[in-house]
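Re: beginner question about structure tokens

> Can someone show what the tokenized structure looks like for a real chain? I only ever see the sequence side.

Sure, here's an example I had lying around. Input first:
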Amino acid sequence: MDSNLEHLERYRVIEEVGRGGMAVVYRGRDRTLDRQVAIKVLHPHLASTPEARARFRQEARAVAKLHHRNIIEIFDFDDGSEKDGVSYIVTEFIEGSTLKQFMEDNKSFFPEIAALIAVEICDAISHAHQAGVIHRDLKPENMMITKEGSLKLMDFGIAKVIDQHEQMTVTGSILGSPAHMAPEMLEGRELDARSDLFSLGTILYWMATGSLPFTGTNPHQVLRRIIEGKFPDPQMVNPELGSDLGRIIKRALANDPEARFSSAVELRQTLLSQLEYLHLDSADHELEEFFEHPESYLEKLRPMVQIRLLERAKGLIASKDFRPALEDLDRLLAMVPGHPEALSLLKGLERRKRLVKIAAWSGGAAAALGIIFFGAWVVFHETQGHGMVNKVLHPTKTGRNFPDAGAPSASQTGDGSSTSSSTSVVSSAPDAGTRNKSDENRPQEGKSPMDPSPIVRKTDPRLAMHHQAKTPKVLPQPVQIIVQPYFQSVSIDGRQVAVLDDKNNGLVAEARLEPGPHKVVVNNDTCQTLEFTALVPKETRPDQVVKYRKRLKFKPATLVVDCSYPDALVFVDGKFKGTASDTKANPIVIPIEGRNPRPEVKLRLRHPKAGEMRTRLRVTAGRSTVRSVKKDEFVRGERASGEEGTGP
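And the corresponding structure tokens:
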């Protein structure tokens, strides 16, 4: 172990856990706060150059601006410039495995899992992009799965801060991982947030298919294919991949940044819309279960996907939206070859396609004439009473032509294939000359033998019951939206709904909704807006209440430090957040956990000449707090008054 690490008086270095081109990562212990940390130490040969130290300092400041549950936290850093000592960054220590190792060990390459993980990554990089930070090195090796089942994005070592005056580049070298780099990075063009989306597209491709989009026998071949934009169609690599997700992947991997998604937010929303049919509540909760028990989760997910695909295909066919229905059936058959119901639906679509082709070939005029002649034939035989069409459409009380419940319908042939209903009616009717003579001589009900008027038959009550069973009356269902900690308004399909506050302390909104999907929006000024789809089932009993329980997430608080020493280092709850002047340009983001919207935080400022200042203050969810710090609040060589317990 490097002898220079002895200079890290506050931290005890335990063991080396990783090594890269810029730095070595150690597992260590914070002696002051008695917690496990990761210490990233810049290689000595790089620490001696001002440019490398500047890039290292840039990484610390870039990550310090970010506070997100899927981004690793930074606690402390020192660029080694003051004492010409060790350059290091101290972050939280993640116990777990990388995303690459986890997916390969558990063989968890499945399209919906890929989409869920990509949603979480989008959430993290969207936060970074909004803070003006591009990661530039997204890859599965830079993502950790914690023991608690959450995803953590790390290693902003080559992150670029947008609009920063200082350009950190290395002449003649390529920064990043070749298989995941955007073409504009390879060609030396300007980078923006869409470059990260390209890298995410390569990760999404890999998670959904088990293979990387750009491969080769050497790095040069890989880079050339990225620049040319050549990669195998993901659906050819994995036939179980749906067409919708395949299109999303191809758009993310577009060679031209203008053809990609405009932002991580847009990509995230598109992925979520593709997961709607599974009715998954939230990606983070689903992934917690998946990361904890990947095998059992996949065993549950696969059949659920198959059921939903079949249900959606049936609904699309009913609404005559045939192309996406065909795509769903194709995917279902790739997952379950020979699926009987899918094959039956597919045959029906193929027959429909052939009929359409025949109609197109025969010409519109011929088809119109055929319809006219067929209609005239039906009217003639109905009015004359010579045909069997009336008997088929309006059976008599004897029920002779009424189909038995267990018998195949008239629209089905002996081999199980369907034909059009009009064809089946005509072909199943016997010729007028073959009617039973006893039928001819029998007086017709409601008509004298000499009466030339059309026959009027009473409707068979069994037929009425049959139609009623097919189209049951569906009533609106009572629905309750139960929200914690509380809400200010709830709207469903754009209309505000009633609030029950007598027994439930204002936590329940109630409405009666028709079966089907409904868009619900929950608002609260201290919480993030919650939007979800409430799917009201048809099978619910009229007296049964459909309940949706949701928990709002507090908006983060922000903190600005207005200090007499602008270059003073700022720490919140022991985590480094940049300098006081940094907080004015980019306020410190403080996430609000638990049920208290006004938590207390520890604020610490450190200045090499003035000393330290420690205090406690309250912040409010969704609000900005400005803390002014005077020179006389700094104390040298002792703890600031009012600070109790341990602190950095």
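Each token stands for a local structural state, so reading them left to right follows the chain. DSSP finds 20 helices and 25 strands in the chain.
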